[in-house]
């Protein structure tokens, strides 16, 4: 019998503040010359004291509210002591005993089933600097020396700690997706895993036959959504193999090696650091009174699940809702298209199928999309009114997305500017098709087109030549007239 | 009266009224340093040129009729754990021997803004860890009132400087008595304000929850004057209280102690302390009563029994993490090693003195899993009990009188053979620090051998101004301490004070 899987996650999010958690250095450290984004405070120069960045507290509180946590009126910081070159003070200031938010939950949906993942707490802490190893693969092994870059040291993070409520790698991945979506909706973090704005550590164990929890292993260094799933799957199979062969699981921290597709032991319980947690006496406690919490609540933007509910009222399918609400900016774009007059269901189809296709082709996201919601709404309306065929509509969208051109000009250039092809101009096309296909015309006139296939073939050629601008009914009648049928 | 004998207030008044210049006052003090410090060894760094330049700038402002601060032209010294921009700040440690800060401690800025003239940086026990100013890279400072004795510590250099007339004012830091005890040993006035009164920004930390910038002077009035410059909200220190402080100089105009309720500490066996200091306590009680106060005996059973243990657990745990930043990476001494760990070990072993290493190791142990639950956790609880004990007593009293130290200044080198003395010596000062209370070591004159006598006045937290008022009344009855002439026979005993 398969052993039940128990997974808990610790997710670090880099907060969207302008400055670091305890000093006024910028949080925009990526690409900066090493050790230029630093000051006496984040370099731990003797005599300096940390100063708490209020906006980090506000963002962490906002995330806490989004996760239905209890925001604490009183929270404190502590020192997590360990010597390492990337940690200037030799301790990390983090919230330990009394974090800013406790409890809460996040709903996830896997295989059509909704599951509630409970949260233990959410706390604030500072990031460490970075070590640079001058080896070809950037790893420590084999490096003759290491360089330290403190540019990132002190950047604010919030850590969201879940209860061990997930029971598959897919659930873990979905949980991280929902968490990231929420963080982005709330402007709390950009949630980019590639740049390290979102980091995930997993605790995983396989339960014993009697249902009691097994030994927990911590997995670190999962740098993409894919690697979360792969690392956990690998770890489950590794643990199963160990247990199947009568072995026991060691409580340890393992690093995911993405290239090799394995986890490797980093340190075990015996060699684990004792962080000698200690209250941070250099910082006054964080006091958030109820009116402030109320203020944070009042200023909460619409949450993903609230948006989903609202979109359901548009009559959209579950799948459409899920795609359109995934990214707040895309959802906003869709809503703008609808409020500019496009029918909600048609607009949903266009955004989901065509806009996403074009974005994908161009390799951009919606914020860089040239076609304004108003223009797309007009385009959708024209197609709805049959002023443009679906095909031509899509072609015009492609043009609008790539060139600086107005909708009117794009329509004009497509040949549909004068409106629909009708009367004499349609007649002209028909005459051209008829004279170009004497054999087919002959067959029809001889009454040999019993099934009507030939006449349909000619109708198709006319419509193609008319670039879809002719009314099929008028084209058929006009063609019949030209063939004297 | 010589210029160096003037109080800070008298000096500022003289400078402002152009009776003498700031440069005159500064040179008078520099001469004292020149004359005595080769023997007293109170200074680590002398900044004579900067001092003269600053004094001249003050004089120029005065000649132009521009606004100068309340400490215009007043020479002062700062303990060498205050960061001073461009002036090396050693903490008396090899690890910072050559370190030059790029910024000023807030307290230094406030002094500067008030027109005060920094003459130099004073000796201390390495990282303020000690009570005798003997654990120092420059060697021990001597007590100007008896050159065979220690000046107390860790702010011994600052206390000795004020006693020897190097300056009317000095800044120290008090963590568990580091200003009050040297003030008592050197026969000057020293005050540890309530925790949170003065910004700690730019003070090289020993223990964050206890360290407090603390002034030393030869008059209570000067303490009040300098407190007005120092005690203010500071956006660089979130543990520094944000409210406006009362006017300390108004508080010292208190005429008598009518209506004041004073508790006199009697919770010890007289054998535990020096008989003459016990006498000072009784004398202070009598003076209070004579001035109209209601005086009653009081006791601090929890503080006396557990204070020292609680203090050391708290302070050493804090110190072990605050001193971890000296890793040889960014500033200070650096000694290479084959690995990162070896570099840490080499640097820290060779560059911290024995007492500092002992305290770091003890503090590290105290926070280690298992020890934390048995020591640090209980210490936090006991600390709260002590605060409760104080609070309860303050319902009955406006202030208490305690000894500052159970002993008179001891002979140099003595603590080496009797380390327990070092610890017991803190018994009356550390509970006040743990409670965050204001405490003033008040000079009670000299004994027959010319050694300073003292008592400690303790007030309710944030009632620093009121406490200064009581101290001022008592000082008027006792007399203010005179300047000592270190090593010159007969003269150091002259400080009986003119009541």
Nutshell version of this structure?
By secondary structure, chain A is of the alpha+beta class. Helices cover 39% and strands 18% of the residues of chain A. In chain B, strands 1-3-2-4-6-5-10-11-9-7-8 form an eleven-stranded mixed sheet, sandwiched between helices.
Written description of the protein model:
The complex is a heterodimer of chains A (485) and B (499). With 485 residues, chain A is of the alpha+beta class. Chain A has 3 domains: 5-292, no CATH class; 302-416, no CATH class; 423-482, Arc Repressor Mutant, subunit A, CATH 1.10.10. Chain A contains 15 helices and 17 strands. In chain A, strands 1, 2, 6, 7, 8, 11, 12, 13, 14 and 15 form a 10-stranded mixed sheet that branches. A 3-stranded antiparallel sheet of chain A has the order 5-4-16, with no helix packed on it. A two-stranded antiparallel sheet of chain A has the order 3-17. In chain A, helix 3 links the parallel strand 13 (217-222) and strand 14. Chain B is of the alpha/beta class. Chain B contains 17 helices and 11 strands. Chain B has helices at 8-16, 22-40, 48-63, 106-113, 156-163, 180-186, 220-230, 248-251, 275-290, 301-322, 340-351, 354-367, 371-394, 414-417, 419-424, 430-434, 464-478; strands at 43-46, 75-79, 117-122, 169-174, 189-192, 212-217, 261-265, 294-298, 399-402, 439-446, 452-459. In chain B, strands 1-3-2-4-6-5-10-11-9-7-8 form an 11-stranded mixed sheet, with helices on both faces. In chain B, helix 10 (301-322) packs across helix 12 (354-367). In chain B, 61% of the residues are buried.
